[in-house]
Design brief:
Layout: E1 2-8, H1 12-22, E2 28-33, E3 46-51, E4 60-61, H2 64-72, E5 78-82, H3 87-90, E6 106-109, E7 113-118, E8 121-127, H4 134-143, E9 161-162, H5 166-182, E10 187-196, H6 203-214, E11 218-224, E12 227-233, E13 236-241, E14 244-248, E15 250-255, H7 260-271, H8 274-292, E16 301-310, E17 314-324, H9 331-338, E18 346-347, H10 349-359, E19 370-374, E20 380-383, E21 388-392, E22 397-406, H11 412-431
Antiparallel strand pairs: 1-8, 2-3, 2-11, 3-7, 4-6, 5-6, 5-19, 7-8, 9-10, 10-18, 10-22, 11-12, 12-21, 13-14, 13-20, 14-17, 15-17, 16-17, 19-20, 21-22
């Protein structure tokens, strides 16, 4: 059981900033922040879930069977992630590529403490075992507003290397095109890793810098011991609200302009780009097919098709697909039926994933996976892990990956430049000292 307590606040943005500093004492952290983006499907503005390894009353889940059982009983909140390579358990697939991060394939925890923001209110949802700490914790968080940020907590400037160099990228992109022309696939999301070895970064400061650059609607700071995710994701994978399921795949990216006229030109060009629209429509159709596995008859609808949304760094083309599911459907089954998300694989999904494994150089791991939560009522919300930095503090290994969709009309040079555009924010943050 959880104890609930709410307080009115005057400066949510300041309190959010200091809440993250306060949370550093915990070794299990999931922070989800909408960055004040308006979202008709949003449930709150931001939420923090935390626990310590020593919390005897918080459950840890690292298998699909455990997750299925826990969520099916609707026991409590769970926060965590699903890595892309979970596909190997869900389908007849393998991943033999290099993995420099060594994260668990799936990790969820039952938070001892949840702190939620909505409007000018902060709410504390604590398990009974630590409910007597609400007042003390809130007082500490409030007082920290007046304190200066701790000094001397900078990151080492990372020397970023590319796993796939330009000539090899072109060769692999052309191999994808050969598969498309043969009819093996229609589209594939081809990703490449950027990485740094023997590098130590300050995860929280790095996350704050990345979030300041991008201000995305699905920002995430995640910690599981020595494993960190610093995410500026603009994309929702899947959300369940009662019997309604929502997926919002992104396909189509354009740079921002240096002035209003140029910016509007880039936005209009993206909106009318035949190749980008084809990418988006193919993945939207794949999502429709995935949702139909559980949907009530006739309930799958495309609410928004190829709509261009503007973010701080880029313009993105987004579609919104919704469906209705039976009341007794286990929420985790919905994940298993749709994972990994089509925007990060291609179409047909299984064929695309097999070819991706042959041509990419590294395991994707948490990149292309999803971070989010399940609530006690079986509702959930998960992002797509893109525009993200992954860090294993023990191995001193830093990684980020970017990708683009290869279709019949793809120009390898343009796809390569799209990858560099997507890499810009992560690279600039990591190369700063």
């Amino acid at each position: 059981m959880r104890r609930h307590r709410s307080f009115s606040i005057s400066s949510p943005s300041i309190l959010k900033e200091n809440l993250l500093e306060w949370s550093k004492a915990y070794d299990k952290i999931v922070w989800l922040d909408s960055n004040e983006h308006t979202d008709k499907y949003g449930s709150f503005d931001a939420i923090l879930a935390i626990a310590r390894q020593t919390d005897g009353f918080s459950k840890i889940i690292e298998s699909t069977d455990e997750a299925h059982e826990f969520i099916g009983k609707k026991q409590d909140w769970l926060f965590g992630y699903l890595s892309y390579d979970l596909k190997n358990e869900l389908e007849d697939l393998v991943s033999l590529n290099f993995d420099g991060l060594d994260f668990p394939k799936i990790h969820f925890f039952q938070p001892s403490k949840i702190i939620r923001f909505k409007g000018n209110e902060i709410s504390f949802l604590y398990l009974d075992g630590c409910a007597d700490e609400i007042e003390k914790d809130y007082s500490e968080i409030e007082k920290s507003i007046l304190s200066e940020s701790k000094k001397g907590e900078s990151s080492q400037a990372a020397h970023i290397k590319m796993r796939i160099h330009k000539d090899a990228y072109f060769e692999k992109a052309n191999t994808f095109l050969q598969h498309i022309h043969r009819g093996d696939i229609y589209e594939a999301n081809f990703c490449q890793e950027f990485y740094a070895e023997n590098t130590s970064i300050n995860p929280l400061i790095t996350y704050k810098k990345l979030n300041t650059i991008s201000r995305p609607p699905f920002a995430t700071f995640l910690r599981n011991g020595d494993n960190y995710l610093l995410s500026a994701s603009p994309e929702r994978y899947l959300k369940k609200m009662g019997e309604t399921i929502i997926s919002q795949p992104i396909k189509g990216t354009a740079q921002r302009g240096t002035n209003k006229i140029e910016d509007e030109q880039f936005r209009t060009l993206l909106e009318n780009d035949e190749k980008e629209r084809a990418e988006n429509v193919m993945i939207t159709d794949l999502v429709r097919n995935d949702l139909s596995k559980s949907a009530l008859k006739g309930s799958v609808q495309v609410r928004e098709l190829c709509k261009v949304h503007t973010f701080k760094q880029v313009h993105q083309m987004i579609s919104t697909v919704v469906s209705k599911v039976p009341k007794d459907k286990n929420p985790f089954e919905l994940i298993k039926e749709t994972f990994p998300m089509g925007s990060m694989t291609g179409a047909p999904k299984i064929s695309a994933m097999k070819i991706i494994e042959e041509l990419e150089e590294t395991k994707r791991g948490l990149y292309s996976g999803a971070v989010g939560y399940f609530d006690p009522n079986g509702n959930f919300d998960f992002n797509v892990v893109i525009r993200s930095i992954l860090y294993n503090a023990h191995l001193k290994y830093v990684s980020f990956s970017v990708g683009s969709a290869i279709t019949a009309k793809s120009d390898p040079e343009k796809e390569y430049q799209e990858c560099l555009l997507k890499a810009k924010a992560m690279r600039s943050v990591l190369e700063q000292s």
